[in-house]
Amino acid sequence: MDIIVFSPHQDDEAFSCAGTIVNHVRSGDAATIVFMTDGRLGFNSAIVKKFTQDELAARRHDEALAAAKEMGVPERGVRFLGYKDQDLGNPSHHDEAIAKVRALLDETQPGVVYIAITNYGHVDHMATYFIVFEALERARYAGEVRVSIPVAFVGKPRPPSGDLSRRFARVNEAFPAAKEIKVDVASSMEQKLAAIKAHASQMGMFANLVDPADDFDTVTEEIFNDVYRDKTEAFESRRLAHLERDGKVGE
């Protein structure tokens, strides 16, 4: 059962579902990881100005390949759509992005589609969510869709949808959330941590959690083991409600 993972940025795939990806690969499934944006406005560029935007985009491209390798996904299984960070929701390329996602679905024929959401409030995460679901509906995708649930929201209400309420309602109508599932990733935790660490340019986000007198790597591993202490990854499982629906799906 081959899978495809749509990730807003280079690191969302690791935090949300690296262990699940490893489990699939170990089972003999082919995995494709798709990065929607180039990550040029990630932590270091936006906050500490360590890199220019172009330098950070190039670095995060290479980090994504390194992380994929830790998960057992070869370079040929990693795709970059290349939209600029925080510009994915721009209406000027909405239809183009949907077309690219549909082409990847046609090419890979996945049994499960993963959407790697780690932040409900980020413009690229919401754009990824809506673009992928619109592409799935137009393609009349009949398989399972798993939307990652950030750790803080497992078993809890999701944030209010606010101005996006109509778009969320449209997704909920077309792809009702059937259940919340947890995937056991206990045997893949080492690979998950390695994949997260591969996104080295983004590790600075933990700096405010680590005392300068402490060993950074040791403390970040402790944070990792605490955050993922139950050794599971959580998802909303969704399926297309009406494949036929009077022949109007996808029109």
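Above is the first protein from milestone M3; the second protein from the same milestone is given next.
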Amino acid sequence: MLNVMVWVWLGVTALAAFVEAVTLTLVSVWCVVGGLTAVFAAYFGASVPAQLLLFIGVSILTAAIVRPLAKKYADPHKVATNADRLLGMAAKVTEDIDNARPSGAVYVDGKTWTARSADGEAIPAGETVEIERMEGVKLIVRARAAVPAV
């Protein structure tokens, strides 16, 4: 007959797997791995405190190692768009960029976009800027450093 703790840990593992399957939020999947570790520890006769420490330690370790990677590749809020290709590109300022007014526009990739300065400094029309990020339909830009004459 199997040790009672084997059944307890199997129950904990099954509950964690059920919660993960229902929520799909990467919250309890780590406890599944920790629970399986505790099942094996109980099966091979480890003490209950050792089983508990293994469960907690392996769950935390698994979360610390895998969660950042999982969030990077499975972030449900990040929606890639074709506009992402604009990031890092150079754009021509067509309307003075002044965050205080607020005003500003740039021309890039055949389109005119509303623009704001990343560092808050005003950028006059005619300057070349680099697109740093997007916020909604606005491009956040930074003045390009002048290339020194040789």
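Note on the second protein: The beta strands are 90-98, 103-108, 111-117, 128-135, 138-143.
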